[in-house]
Amino acid sequence: MKKEKRRRPRSCKKPKASEQQKMVDNYYSISSTTPQKTGLKYLVESFTLCSLDREVNKKGKGYRPDPRYRRANTEVVQERIQTVTGQKVIDTDLSLMGMYFEKYVELVNLVLSRVYSDKERVDLLGEELNSYRGQGYNLLMKEEYLSYKDNKDVQDQCFERMYRNVLEQVARVIHSNWLRRQLMKSAIEYVSEDREALVRLLKNKYISSKLIKKVRARCESTKNNGTGYYHTVSVLKQLRKKLDEHILTERGEPLSFRKYQRKRVSGYLKDSSESGEVLASVDGLLHEFVSAGYPFSIPKMQSHTEDFSASNENDPGQGYWYSVDKEDEVLFFLKLPEPIEGKEVEGSPYKTKTLSFRFLDWLPRSVVKDRAKAEVAEKEGKYHRAKKLKFRARKFEDMHTQLMNTIELQHAAYQCSRLKSRKEKDTDKVNELQEKIAKLRKTRKCGPPRLLLRDNRVTLQIPFLPPTKEMADEELGPRTYRRRAGADRGVRVPIVLSVRDGNGGFVDEMVSFDKLISKRDYLRTQTRGLTSRVRKMRNNWERKHTDRSYPGHLLKKDRHLSAIWRKVGRLDREIARQVASQTVWFCEEYEVKTLNFENLKAYTPPAGWGTLSWRLSSNLWSKIFDTVIYMRQSLGHKRGGVWTVSPAWTSQKCHACGEKGVRVGTEGSTEEKKGGEYFHCESCGSSLHADVNAARNIIDVKSFKPSAVTGQQQTLA
Fold first, then answer.
1. Does pTM top 0.85 for this prediction?
2. In Å, how far from its chain's centre is CA 363?
């Protein structure tokens, strides 16, 4: 189950629809503490957790073990290899971590089953959560059957602060599920009343934006809610799938792949002799849904992810604890619930209920590295690059300060509480600590972390406050943004950028990372054959040995396949980060206020374009788009200053004269070639790269008030 995200503000004041932000990370929201200019609350950085007995490798100290170790067989040397290389987390810690998440998921599902046992109360809770402007666990704790003190079985399984995290997760699930139910009710009522809309829903390949707007407008619960559009799309797809399956079942046909089911149902509706019978069958099912309601199942949590956002106090009771170790390493202690037993570690406040990790605080090292690079860039006359590196160094420096402030506050609060509990108190020491705590509470601190367990890897995501306007102005100098830029989704490069230079010309830049992208495509090609082999091996084994587990050689292939996909995922994030960084700093260099992207959410390439679909899937458009917004917001741009524009005719119209042109194979050629790399206008004779021409067209847009899609949209002038 995908982890639900808080998508509503916490402030008492209800935000306007125009203030809603697009969710591009788990920590975006509008609240009383959110910078009003950017709408960005946190910058999130990930840290890989390692076991305590494993040495965290650092640059300059060797990433690989000594080759002599491979020829030795002594137990001492083998143990040394295991600490330097091999798994980041040892099997014992992984086992405890797995038990921890199983307990957390079990408690979330236990609370969900109790809540959903009373259907009327669930509806009331969902309605209250929809209008509630605080953390959801505060509302759920008022319910007697959900309170920690009144549930002995819960007390025997977890500590109180962990139960708060459980309730916060449950509140998010209840709210999201309630919104889906309200949207489903509105969708069923609308298609029941409008026969044309019902036919469009079942007949067309894509769900029209008009239908989405109509359904969303009928649902009062999603008004002024930034998540309504994409929730509506998901609900309409769910309803259409249910109707398709009903139609095929009524006709006695077997269910198959979703794509083939859609083709068959669409074919029946296009046949005039069949459409009447099909629609009559659908009307009966819709009437049943209107009277009895759509048959939703009780939601369950399956993801091994815990968000500590309900644990917002700086004391050991919140369940996690930081401690600075030697050099630039930080220890992370996790409190284990009953009946899981860990081991006692020096410096942990949880005694034997401790699961311990360490992670490398790479922020100070990055600061030194970036400042050194900035000095070199200044000597070479690359002042824009030097400014970029200085800003990044300042940002990392501030993040490190936030982390250290958080750790210092944790320890000071813990020491103060221990001194207060003693019979003979050191009043002067207590007062000193209280003054220190009051001072630290006013400083910039990182937020409660998020813990993930995935593919035998443990990751800690820590949210940091974004740079202030004063920091940005100090490093970047006074800034005035006045230009508009266009960004085209390139087939051969991820992004092509274009901006007017103020003298009647354009400045264009092709953002390309060919080596990384070719490596990613190579890995994806490997997964094709390997996936097929693993599937065949599984099918053969299950057919011959139904009651036996998979053999070692099959599991080895499966691990190999998972490792390749992990590499692809890492490359995806790195490509998106590098492309977005170059895009953002191009905009900073040319004082771009508004950056226009094509809105290609529902785009599919036309038939006969060869491998265009494969190449488009390799340029990670959605990841890049979200990362650009994220980075632009961190630089002080409201909502990132990013708008989306309809892609219609941007690749076919000439930017100079506005007439329709043709694609050609080479620059200067006039012979049309489908899917060619260059663009030629027969009217004015201009010839240039097709993606550059499209990017220049995307600049010329006019804005209108966004209605359906959250965030910002524009249309062609």
1. no
2. 22
